[in-house]
Amino acid sequence: MSETSWNLTLLTERLILHPLQPEDYNSWYAGFSGRLKNQHKYDAGQRDLEGCDLQWFLELCQRHQKLALSDKVYIFGIFSRETNKHLGNIDIATIRREENQWANLGYSIHNQYQQQGFGKEAVRVALIAGFEDLNYHRIEAAINLDNEQSIALAKSVGMKKECIREGFYYENGQWTDHFIYVAFPSNFGLVEKAPVTEA
């Protein structure tokens, strides 16, 4: 990673994941504008795109860069290698570095592209990059207890259920419990690294 930009690109058989760039605007807009009405409780459904013009998108790209360069959050757009359609997003957010090297994983696929295995494909390559390129040791996902789709995805990539954190997120006017699913480098046959410490 350079000091002025973050451009980590990940490839799978069908997908390319990379930070949003100005030239992604039309694809990004089409992905969000093509969303269907919410298909289940945890599907965000259609999005109001009023005000999301090119200038707004350029500022979004810049915010994502600043978050990555400050080691706060690494946000990837998920795109089809064949069509360049924007399929969704993945983010890896630092919880604590130092002796923990600990991060949180978030993922979302536009509902018109769900049930095609894109989420599993994207999450797997993002987890590996989180360990290999971003040097995390522990990456976890906090999932609502009844979010069956997200639980199934986490299990499918080899994440293990660790615990229930009670009252973990405040959402919809109340504190809610969440399952914690976790992954480590060893789950993917990767070498466990010692934390990088400053001299």
Automatic annotation (TrEMBL):
<dbReference type="GO" id="GO:0016747">
    <property type="term" value="F:acyltransferase activity, transferring groups other than amino-acyl groups"/>
</dbReference>
<dbReference type="InterPro" id="IPR051531">
    <property type="entry name" value="N-acetyltransferase"/>
</dbReference>
<feature type="domain" description="N-acetyltransferase">
    <location>
        <begin position="15"/>
        <end position="181"/>
    </location>
</feature>
<keyword id="KW-0808">Transferase</keyword>
<dbReference type="Pfam" id="PF13302">
    <property type="entry name" value="Acetyltransf_3"/>
</dbReference>
<dbReference type="InterPro" id="IPR016181">
    <property type="entry name" value="Acyl_CoA_acyltransferase"/>
</dbReference>
<dbReference type="InterPro" id="IPR000182">
    <property type="entry name" value="GNAT_dom"/>
</dbReference>
<protein>
    <submittedName>
        <fullName>GNAT family N-acetyltransferase</fullName>
    </submittedName>
</protein>
